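Predict structure. Input: Knottin scorpion toxin-like domain-containing protein, 100 residues.
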Amino acid sequence: MEKKSLAALSFLFLVLFAAYAKETVAIEDRPSNCAHLSNTYRGPCVGFLGASAVCNVVCIDESQSYRSGDCYDWQCWCWEKGCQVDQKNGLLSILEHQDA
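Output follows.
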């Protein structure tokens, strides 16, 4: 029985480490002029636990210049409306802001 507990605990640490690695790698792709840390979000922001939805609402309520919010590196990042991901090369590009 003790071996099963150790295996389960090891698996849990592996899952948490993988989630942390995913969150921390993504932050390097965010330029400072497109994404900003939320000033009003409180607590850890973990995307796979549903906090991204809360972060998104907080960012939209925080400023009219934000279009969405996402969890990265355990923090809530707010996206400005004029920024978009370039799907061809995966880099962020700044597009002219157009009110829809």
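Residues 20-28, 87-100 have pLDDT under 50 and may be disordered.
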